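Posted in: Structural Biology > Protein-Ligand Complexes

Title: Requesting predicted complex, adenosine monophosphate in pocket

I'd be grateful if someone could produce the 3D structure tokens for the following input. Sequence and ligand are given below.
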Amino acid sequence: MADPESRNYSRQVSGFMHSHVLPTRVGEPQLLALSPDLARQLGFSEDFCRSEEFLQCMAGNQLLTGSRPYATRYGGHQFGQWAGQLGDGRAMNLGEVTDLDGQPQCLQLKGAGPTPYSRGADGRAVLRSSMREFLCSEAMHFLGVPTTRALSLVGTGDSVLRDMFYDGNPEEEPGAIVCRVAPSFTRFGHFQLCAMRGEWELLRELIDFTIVADFPELHARHLSGELDREALHACWFAEVCQRTRVTLLGWMRTGFVHGVLNTDNMSIIGQTIDYGPYGWLDNFDAQWTPNTTDAGMRRYSFGQQPAVVQWNLYQLANALLPVTGNRESMEAELTRFATLHEREWQEMILAKAGLLPGTEQEDEAILDGLMQILVAQETDYTLFFRRLADFDHRRQDLVLAEIVREAIYDQTAYDEAQQQRINVWATLYAARLEQQDSDWGQRRARMNAMNPCFVLRNYLTQQAVEQAAQGELQLLRDLQQALQRPYDEDPRFALLYGRRPEWARHKAGCSMLSCSS
Ligand code: AMP
Ligand code: MG
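-- Reply #1 --
Done. Output follows.
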């Protein structure tokens, strides 16, 4: 049910989940990037994607046939505090397209102008944040981590005023629009706002709608009589927890830090959503956060992600409870979330090292040593595991400390004592591999299939952004190519696989990002 108010002005919306809106025209749209893979999946021909019609539609200057755009209403906890009504302040859904697998996919423009949820802001997005979102959602997809996707990146030709570091120095920046694509853009915050406002009927409708549209297998089991309403809700919440866990583990495996895990940035179908001041670990540091707004609290740092995601699931459970009832089953599910994640994280780190789980004591010994190596001398998370796969424990001539040397940032502290420590660990590691009768060739293939050689390092995106602002798109193109095969080394992109250069260590946009976008 849509909000009957058709005028587009910032306001509180009660009793409705969405408002119809129209994109605001932009001056001189230019297609900066396209995801050919996603276009294909959506059944869009190359000709169509190169057409003027496509460009104008992706810029919001024209509507796709049958499209009736709308912006949705949600709320959320931001940095732990309830923030009230937020909503699609600069996003609008254009409608759905059924993809080649028969899955309906919603197309959404981000940055296409103000909506009733803009809270007085301009509804626009700048090129740097749009490029970052475009690249990262595609990178995440090819890494095999659930995510919203990005079809196109359009430069608007208009400028947008932003105070990037909130220090009273606003500047004109080029504007851009990303077309995001997902089966559903429903967030935890959609449910929360209904609950916070006591809109129980609307909440019930939203839950029913979500299960039918986004969890059809569960709905079918309900229709067949297998699940009564209470069991349906319990299974649904369990499924949300499970999908969220899979995505979280994907972030932890690849070294992704979302940066703003507010409840309004949590997708009900478990996809990674809203790429803002995100980052990828270079050196392994569980406390690292790319988000300057969070530099003090580190609420959303790499190592905090499991706890904060569980906290977000608690907020979702609180919102659903008045309709679904059954507190015990939800609480059990939330506890299970943490227990399972802890186990999966351990198993995953072992698997990244090519090991199967052993006894608790054996695993502890291996993992403690491994963590020590990762933290000491600032070891690159991505490169370390990639190089570790080159270690053949049956060859006497291979010294682990030498093999992983390239992954170390603090080479000055990489002294003999530390190399000795790594080699001591290598002896333990080799014994474990021997005990598991691990064949080097097979292990290497298994490890390389889960340890990417390419992640979208912050400094790379920043360079691509700086070049694009000068009208140079080569690096954007190269990154687009490289991110499509993140597990297979391609000599053409060797330069993109290396560790972060020293100049990028403290540079804005590389190691520090603000929420301004
Ligand atoms: P984000 O930090 O991007 O997750 O956004 C948080 C909230 O602020 C969401 O409701 C956004 O729609 C809204 N928002 C962010 N930037 C803008 C903008 N330029 N214009 C309107 N709304 C915005
Ligand atoms: Mg958001």
